[in-house]
Amino acid sequence: xxxxxxxxxxxxxxxxxxxxxxxxxxxxxxxxxxxxxxxxxxxxxxxxxxxxxxxxxxxxxxxxxxxxxxxxxxxxxxxxxxxxxxxxxxxxxxxxxxxxxxxxxxxxxxxxxxxxxxxxxxxxxxxxxxxxxxxxxxxxxxxxxxxxxxxxxxxxxxxxxxxxxxxxxxxxxxxxxxxxxxxxxxxxxxxxxxxxxxxxxxxxxxxxxxxxxxxxxxxxxxxxxxxxxxxxxxxxxx
Length: 238
Description:
Blueprint lengths: L1 H17 L26 E7 L2 E11 L2 E8 L2 E12 L2 E7 L8 E7 L5 E8 L8 E7 L7 E4 L3 E5 L4 E6 L11 E10 L2 E6 L9 E11 L2 E9 L2 E4 L3
Antiparallel strand pairs: 1-2, 1-8, 2-3, 3-4, 4-5, 5-6, 6-7, 7-8, 9-10, 10-11, 11-12, 12-13, 13-14, 14-15, 15-16
């Protein structure tokens, strides 16, 4: 009898070896987990749109794993951002926090589209009495938007890719003393016109300005020749 049982055991073992040694595993009914979705491309870039009546720019310059960071520019005020990005359906959910040491700092709650081209979300102030919540929808800027800079002997203006604008000028009563004033803002361009929202300042005394580009046609080649606005005339410099 023992001899017959031994033969039977050897037969079962040989059968298992011939089939590759695979033994069926019972289905326990446990949920099968999938690997978390990862970014197919980088969300780094610059996103812009309306933010309570004035343009805002959110620049994403770092994204790795769940970590994401960058900065935003609004009315000439630049604030660093850090937070996390996680899958959200077909897109991505992002939380970005400003440092918190400025009265108007807050938190952005954003949904980034699957193609990484649009951001839609809300902003909540950290200090509830400092500002009202905002809703916004931003679009990613293509790589064709470059910087624009013009100057004259006493002043200059620059429109940077991240949406910031800087005006440097000598007030009429301070040219001899060499005291230059610097005013910062955020710009929005429509064809040949720049509309600027300035950071609150006592020197310039303006919250909004418009500057217009003037072009020159030189033997069929058209290029920006000058920029005017607020009593300034700036020129293309070599």
